[in-house]
Model the fold of this input.
Amino acid sequence: MKGFQEQEVTSVIEIDRKVCKGCDSCKSFCPADAIQGKYGAVHSIDSEKCISCGQCLVNCPFGAPKDKVDVVDKVIEQLKNKKITVVGTMAPSVRVAIGEEFGMEPGSLVTEKLYGALKQAGFKILDTNFTADQTIMEEGMELIAKIRHFALGEPSEHHLGPLPQFTSCCPAWVRYAELNYPELLPNMSSAKSPMMMAGALGKTYGAKEVWKVNPEDMFMVGIMPCTAKKFEASRPEFTSAARYWQTQGRSGSYPDIDVVLTTRDLARLFKKLNIDFKSVPEFTDQDNPLAQYSGAGTIFGNTGGVMEAALRTAYFVITGKELDVLEFQPVRGLKGVKEASVTMKDVKTGKEVTLKVAVAHGIKTNVKPLLDEAKAGKSPYHFIEVMNCPGGCVNGGGQPINPMGTSW
Ligand code: SF4
Done:
């Protein structure tokens, strides 16, 4: 089966000319300076600059920017096809937002209801929290190798990217770096995002061991708070499942993630299937090995969550002990940037190192000074978490739209 997003999407967002009033609100929220048009005139998006984060979409007072990748009907078609196993992988931030689309209090945590509604719709589940744990292990081990080599002076046989290491799970941030700070790409963690790990794992291990289906009979759906995830899924690099199945004598294209639904898309899908989210029976999928996760995977959706989770792993491996409390301090003069330092004693050598880490969210306002510092080779940090959206994925461009606007 071919994925519906097999073509790389350059920009997921477009502005509806008939709705735009030229008020410039979108410009003030766009982190990539991708909006064109004078005040009072109809605006448009420069797709060469757009990072698909959807911040213009959730903040326009007139609803002019639109998500142009609508796959809701395609997913319903797959769900109705009895030959196809449709697997949904849902991010942490979806479960605190989907209830809002059905009249529940904003911020209600509805994990079991979401599992129940997905089951009723016909999805199998690979919780993205499960692969957030894998991402933490990968990013954490990568950081450990760099700390041991660069900070503790241990030899390394591997090619290691430079410090500071940047997190790589936000596709809008990755795109922004590609377009605006290509010098910093070697600093990017080589770990895939949790969604793309879910795609690779689901179409290989999941197909063989959990659902026992052929990969051509599987359809992987990312369920995300984020419009940029639609762009990420379409990137041509993500061919892990196809490469694996080639070694097993199968030559299909097998996209790791076939399509992405945002939280808003998922709400529309439930409504089209007449699933009454509020009254749907709760479900926990306890026997599914791909629906197990730690608390670390859960905090991925908040700013600071990725970094804290990876740092805990690094601390444990280097010192042999659990990290008690990680205290972030706001960095003076850089609103929206937090930093922390942790001193660790290497259990192997007895040497000490003090790790400095920073967390920044909101590329437009907070991240650029950190990037300029790193580009100039003057960054005091070992590890920097970057999330495009202010506050992290909970305020992503695919989340329910607050008619009062956001407070950012
Ligand atoms: Fe998407 Fe989260 Fe990045 Fe926003 S912060 S663009 S929601 S991954």
